[in-house]
Design brief:
The complex is a heterodimer of chains A (about 350) and B (about 425). Chain A is mainly β and about 350 residues long. Chain A is built from two helices and 22 strands. Classes of the chains: A mainly beta (about 350), B alpha+beta (about 425).
């Protein structure tokens, strides 16, 4: 019985979205996906999707140096990524909502890319969702976050626990002092409220064209964009591109906080999405740096979290000079799930060279 | 329990094991045809091996050449209470265990059993465990898990291909049966000495996970392949992934011939696994990307025989760097010694707490061997040095959650009934008392 009513509700959401026919409960859709068909001939680049979606903001909390906001929207399709392959995840008939626990480091506003938060959902002490590890994801309106479609049996209040384990050791400043955290929220799941969330079609002529929906500014939640080239610390050496991602290169004169010496330099690469400037974590990057034909660096660019550089990749080098040639190789593209409009970008990423 | 004719006998038996109790057993037996299991010897002590965990010789070999694992399991988690054991209590425990051993032959078709003891049990003695035993209290073994400690005193592990056998043995050990398989049972029960803290149940082998997939953690459309031996759809304990029993046996000291048992309860979240990953992704994550790219794994992997062909997977860091994903089995290769793993898996799936889960039971010479293996599974360095995440694309970490961990000493058979912490010291002490 419960399932039937939920399906009816979901059909209603789809109908609202597609045709604006609010309240069409029981409307039959042939596909379990309630979204419009994908844009045809999607470019291998960031593109404008068929529609934009609103989002509901649940409770917010802070613990152990992190903050977390429980946000959600109606269930929607996304793509998981392994290597350069994507797998499209369709909305299942029992999915109630797309749950997104937005976790950020309270002091710096950085979304930690070296942890995998866990979600448990209970109702009156009974387990509803046990040990779910939502995917790291990238969405045009939200940037880098964690999310998944989840099933809930019925409207009502649920307790949602979000647990964050200790991160990796490539962190600097206050990020390095932040350990584990746990948040407990009450989620009031009301299908009628979900139904009222905006669902706006993008004009057909614009769908599939290069571009991105505007980032959504959430109250109290920092916007997790990479710093503009002007705002990056150090000597900004230029920007290059691969697979529609932009790579801004800067060098710092003191590499101590990245495991080097005072006399060494730190070569930092900050990859981000075009248009919305969202950082791109979970890549394997490597680099060669050469001067007058002599190799100065040939190795990994490791992912670091730094208050000023944000999520970026870097290596310690003895010296960097204007005129050096830097080649960045993308050994693996970002292994983060993609929302619509990002699933064809940042996959085929040839190496790219920049003269500093 | 309803006796509806619509339920077939096999389905009935497996749910009966999960439910347990004398009524379930009796309902099960009433549904006949009764099973025909040979009885054990009159004097099990005279013929059974000193190693409780020496099961392999008693297990048939599958068509693929691997050890067959008994299909039905019960774990009895027992509390001893305060104080130290008396000679009479030791006799009771030994008598109860020997009673069920006389009832069923020691085989997969009959009954295999072990009893093991936790560090919390051994705390009650003045002596410490000897240095030859590595048995720390359980601890979280990754930065992203927060398990409960399995703080019971003892675990009895019952295993058989017949649900009726594990249920029968359990009832007899609780003193509920005067006769088992036609063999009169002693007036001695484990429950005379211990209290039963929890019964845990499970199953492993072709078809059982699919029959048991109507639980939380598995999507409603029944995605577990019909013949799969485990919930995740693949063979896991291929002989090529198992060390010989010698490798996991304690070699020295008073507990020589014993082993350590690590028991974790893992919950599985298979919605992502079955609904959001492709088969290639699943093969990449369980085995390695090489196996997915070359279609090396058919169905559950029976075609691999005994050899998971891990040598072809390549270096885990290199794979993670270039493919963005690393296989679960692939990560374990580095902890092999002489090309075999250092922990012996005897794990099985479970519907306990009405959730798809896994009682990950492994035997190893030292708990340190388990910790080393689990650290390899965490792949922290791989995560740190590549596109692979803390859990995402990092083997199967995305789908499992450790909710409880326990460490136990599985003593040799002659010390299985309420052993002291240091049998040699105890013997010496008794000798002194005798000589005084």
């Amino acid at each position: 019985m419960r399932k039937r009513s939920r399906r009816a509700f979901l059909a209603g959401v789809g109908a609202t979205g597609v045709g604006g026919l609010t309240g069409c409960l029981g409307f039959e859709l042939e596909s379990s996906s309630l979204e419009p068909s994908l844009v045809e001939n999607r470019p291998d680049a960031v593109y404008l999707p068929t529609h934009t979606e609103g989002m509901a903001m649940g409770e917010m909390g802070s613990d152990g140096g992190y903050s977390c906001a429980l946000t959600y929207s109606y269930p929607h399709r996304f793509w998981t990524v392994t290597g350069s392959d994507t797998a499209q995840v369709e909305v299942e008939s029992d999915d109630a909502l797309h749950l997104m626990p937005v976790v950020w480091h309270s002091e710096t506003g950085i979304v930690p890319s070296d942890v995998s938060p866990r979600v448990d959902v209970t109702q009156d002490g009974e387990s509803i969702v046990d040990g779910l590890n939502p995917w790291p994801m990238l969405a045009q309106q939200m940037g880098y976050h964690f999310g998944d479609n989840i099933e809930l049996p019925e409207a009502g209040e649920y307790t949602v626990t979000v647990s964050v384990g200790a991160g990796g050791d490539r962190r600097t400043g206050p990020l390095a002092d932040t350990g584990a955290a746990e948040f407990e929220f009450t989620l009031d799941y009301q299908p009628s409220e979900l139904r009222d969330l905006p669902f706006e079609d993008i004009a057909e002529a614009r769908q599939g064209t290069h571009g991105a929906a505007e980032p959504m500014q959430m109250k109290m939640v920092p916007m997790m964009q990479a710093p503009t080239a002007d705002d990056l610390p150090g000597t900004v050496r230029g920007t290059t591109e691969s697979g529609d991602a932009q790579f801004v290169v800067t060098t710092l004169d003191d590499a101590t906080r990245f495991g080097g010496d005072e006399g060494q330099q730190y070569l930092a690469v900050s990859p981000r999405t075009p248009y919305n400037r969202f950082p791109l974590p979970q890549m394997s990057l490597s680099a060669t740096l050469s001067r007058d034909g002599e190799t100065r660096l040939d190795g990994y660019l490791n992912e670091w979290l730094d208050p000023d550089l944000g999520i970026h990749y870097g290596a310690v080098v003895d010296s960097v000079a204007a005129g050096d040639d830097l080649t960045i190789a993308v050994d693996s593209p970002p292994q983060i799930s993609r929302h619509e409009g990002y699933e064809t970008a940042f996959l085929s990423m040839p190496e790219t060279t920049l003269t500093l | 329990m309803s006796d509806s004719p619509g339920i077939d006998r096999r389905a009935f038996v497996k749910s009966a094991v999960a439910i347990g109790g004398a009524a379930a057993l009796s309902a099960c037996l009433d549904r006949g045809p009764s099973i025909d299991v040979p009885r054990g010897p009159e004097e099990p002590a005279a013929t059974f091996p000193e190693r409780q965990h020496a099961w392999n010789a008693a297990l048939p070999t599958t068509d693929a050449g691997n050890n067959h694992h008994p299909r039905h399991r019960v774990l009895l988690a027992l509390d001893y209470g305060d104080g130290t054991p008396t000679a009479a209590e030791r006799e009771t425990v030994e008598a109860a265990l020997a009673g069920v051993e006389r009832a069923y032959e020691r085989s997969a078709a009959g009954l295999l059993l072990t009893i093991s003891y936790s560090p919390y049990y051994f705390e009650r003695f003045d002596d410490d465990l000897p240095e030859s035993v590595d048995l720390p209290e359980p601890a979280a073994l990754s930065s992203f898990e927060d398990p409960d400690a399995d703080a019971v005193d003892a675990i009895v592990h019952l295993a058989s291909d017949h649900g009726e056998v594990v249920m029968g043995a359990e009832e007899a050990l609780k003193g509920e049966l005067g006769e088992l398989n036609g063999v009169s049972q002693p007036d001695a029960a484990l429950t005379d000495v211990f209290s039963l803290d929890e019964r845990r149940t499970g199953f492993v082998g072709d078809g059982l996970p699919a029959e048991n997939q109507d639980v939380d953690g598995v999507p409603d459309d029944g995605p577990v392949p019909e013949d799969a031996p485990m919930y995740m759809g693949f063979e896991s304990a291929l002989d090529g992934n198992q060390p010989p029993e010698d490798r996991v046996t304690i070699q020295q000291g008073p507990f020589a011939g014993g082993t350590t048992q690590q028991l974790s309860m893992l919950t599985l979240n298979l919605t992502q696994w079955y609904e959001q990953d492709t088969r290639d992704q699943r093969v990449s994550k369980m085995f390695c990307p090489h196996h997915a790219q070359n279609d090396l794994v058919e169905d559950a992997g029976e075609n691999l025989g005994t050899d998971p062909q891990m040598d072809d997977c390549g270096d885990p860091i290199e794979t993670a760097r270039r493919e963005g994903v690393v296989g679960h089995s692939q990560k374990m290769v580095e902890v092999r010694e002489d090309d075999t793993p250092i922990i012996l898996r005897r794990d099985f799936d479970s519907t306990d707490r009405d959730h798809a889960g896994l009682h990950f039971l492994s035997l190893q010479r030292t708990i340190t061997d388990f910790v080393t293996t689990r650290e390899a599974m965490n792949g922290e360095q791989i995560d740190s040095d590549s596109a692979v995440g803390q859990r995402t694309n990092n083997g199967i970490l995305q789908y499992i959650n450790t909710v409880r961990r326990g460490n136990f000493l599985l003593p040799p058979r002659s010390l299985r009934a309420l052993p002291p912490a240091n049998p040699r010291a105890t013997v010496a002490e008794n000798a002194e008392v005798a000589n005084a």
